[in-house]
Amino acid sequence: MATRTTGNLTGPTGGTGDAAAVLTAHGVRRAFDGRPVLAGVDLSIAAGEVVALLGGSGSGKSTLLRVLAGLDAEATGRTGLRGTAAVVFQEHRLLPWKRVGDNVALGLTGPDVRARVDRALAEVGLADRRRAWPAELSGGQAQRVAVARALVRGPDLLLLDEPFGALDALTRLRMQSLLRRLRAEHGFAALLVTHDVEEALLLADRILLLDGGVIAEEIPVDLDPARSPDQPAFGALRRRLLDRLGVPAA
Ligand SMILES: Nc1ncnc2c1ncn2[C@@H]1O[C@H](COP(=O)(O)OP(=O)(O)O)[C@@H](O)[C@H]1O
Ligand SMILES: [Mg+2]
Prior knowledge:
Layout: E1 8-9, E2 21-32, E3 35-46, E4 50-54, H1 61-68, E5 76-81, E6 85-88, H2 100-105, H3 113-123, H4 139-151, E7 157-161, H5 169-186, E8 189-194, H6 197-203, E9 206-211, E10 214-220, H7 232-244
Parallel strand pairs: 1-5, 4-8, 4-9, 6-7, 7-8
Antiparallel strand pairs: 2-3, 2-5, 9-10
């Protein structure tokens, strides 16, 4: 397993990880100004598995995702990544001075970049926007470009930090089904950070609850692939998660 050595994180020297895991973390800690936010996080994501990371606002979800993405030099603990990871944030983070296609192509090399970019844009339904400027896109379109920019790298793991959180409800539903389709086609694993219980239940194979700086609970989502919120089993899981998050019954 390739290991991360960013900052204070040290990678395992081999033999410690789950052989089938695309991502592992052991004892990840992070404090801000002496206040611990992550207090020893352990997790493992299998190849092709979609895991939702659920937690209240300020529970440390984004902090953990940044650590796992190798973007936090101050964290301690061990993380291991097998293959390549790509990140999608809540804000699209497109460069406004580059056209859509050039944003997707950023950092890519090789003779077939143009074809790969076109394919990625087509996959998110934006084949005709390659020459558009980011400012010309709707919020949902810009976020689809961000997804294309991640996809074009052929990632083994997508790290998604509330990627649909800023979108209106209808666009969010469309993005959720897009993610399900892309996942079925590409088979990437994903860690989906969300505070939306329904989104977690719709998309994930397993849910991790971040609370008190640790993974406080792990909930397998034993629902069929064509799951929907009106199924009794879906409702029961939703109730259990909302209870756990401290949201009183309606
Ligand atoms: N760069 C930072 N400096 C100081 N405090 C931070 C920083 N980043 C996050 N925090 C604090 O860490 C806690 C967790 O933040 P965050 O990971 O963004 O939570 P979540 O994504 O679950 O809402 C919050 O209390 C936040 O204020
Ligand atoms: Mg966050």
